[in-house]
Amino acid sequence: MSAQSTGSPSGEPFDAVDVIRTKRDRHELSDAQIDWVVDAYTRGVVADEQMSALAMAILLNGMTHRETARWTAAMIASGERLDFSGLRGANGHPRPTADKHSTGGVGDKITLPLAPLVAAFGVAVPQLSGRGLGHTGGTLDKLESIPGWRAALSNEEMLSQLGDIGAVICAAGSGLAPADKKLYALRDVTGTVEAIPLIASSIMSKKIAEGTGSLVLDVKVGSGAFMKDEAQARELAETMVALGKDAGVNTVALLTNMATPLGLTVGNAIEVEETLEVLAGGGPEDVVELTVRLAEEMLACAGVHDADPAQALKDGRAMDVWRRMIAAQGGDPDASMPRAKESEVVYAAADGVLVELDALKIGVAAWRLGAGRARKEDPVQAGAGVRLHAKPGAFVRAGEPLMTLLTDTPERFGRAREAVQDAAVIAPAGSRPAQRLVIDRIA
Ligand code: URA
After folding, report:
1. Are residues 249 and 357 in the same domain?
2. Is 299's C-beta closer than 6 angstroms to any atom of ligand 1?
3. How far is Cα 73 from Cα 362, in angstroms, rounded to an integer?
4. Using one digit for the tens of pLDDT, what is the confidence trace for 161-209?
5. Does one domain contain both 306 and 347?
6. Could you tell me the distance, in angstroms and rounded to a whole number, from the CA of residue 184 to the centre of ligand 1?
7. Residue, of 137 and 320, whose pLDDT is higher
8. Domains in the chain: how many in total?
9. Contact partners, residue 14, CB within 8 Å, separation at least 6
10. Which residues are catalytic, by number?
């Protein structure tokens, strides 16, 4: 039941304090209250301190599915919606669209091989991405290490590239869900990021406004993920899948393991190099497995059921699309990638089986080496990061290289070494308990 509004002397239909009290006292917000508060916050009528009180009340008291769906719709309504319905395939028929969103992980370069791989089967992939903040890397930071590549495209350029090549990875324009942009920045500094209804509506408002027909969510679980525990990750995945379906987007989520970094590289240029290995038919097993699995899900959601994405990685079809996609955005697909000026090796302390390699600690080290940023205006170093020489399950000998730290600024080595000093757990005997990369599928 919603609390009665006492109205507002300013001519606004509600008073922010009434809306805050409603949620503080564990009542449901009405559709009209939600529409108003999101819109009034975007217009600057609701102040930051009022919205942060409301966000905290939502974090503490939750929202029903109806409230979360309405909040999402209100954030979508704050900006523009893209429309890909005019896209046509080679046969002149409407071209299906599919997108993927990852909740963020360490060494998560999957978008890079995935977008051209799915496009190789005639599905258009409009991948609007972001830059990294904190220990998880950003897709745009990785691609910007390719000489000449540019992230900013107009809507017309994006549509034209999608029509010609089928895949585009670019920066989300400021017109999509501006309410979320403002609210996310506020949540970041008020301890209110971790509210599942707010995370779900934040992610889904951008994806629904982007106009994709289908969406596959990669919800990470583990030390390197936003959600450390499986029950919370599952709740987030279920909430987002329900929001997507309500909005007519064919949505599926995979819960995937982020206890250890994906692949053998964590950084920007070195993750692009690993992507090229995958697109050339090689690359680390876990990166290939997740890329292929997500491609199968995206293709099935988009109505393509007879595809063999693993084969398209081996025979160069995905690489062809990658080269065209990079060149279309000014990048040189043949350029050699920037290298860090300095390196330092971390060695195994004992003989035994590497049973754990903690994703969060490696992510923090890569960030401290200069691969990530502390404030959103900070630059990143293209060549910085961590190159792993062994993954959990491998037998290592004392004195063997475990990882190489890379940076242009050697004064960063000390803090990075501190971050990784107990990242690796080596057991004298036995083997690493089997951990599935894909934990579950939620549809
Ligand atoms: N990513 C988003 O886009 N929004 C959130 O709230 C959390 C992660």
Report:
1. no
2. no
3. 37
4. 999 999 999 998 888 999 999 998 899 889 998 899 999 999 999 999 9
5. no
6. 7
7. 320
8. 3
9. 5, 7, 8, 32, 33, 36, 37, 40
10. 101, 180, 187, 202, 206
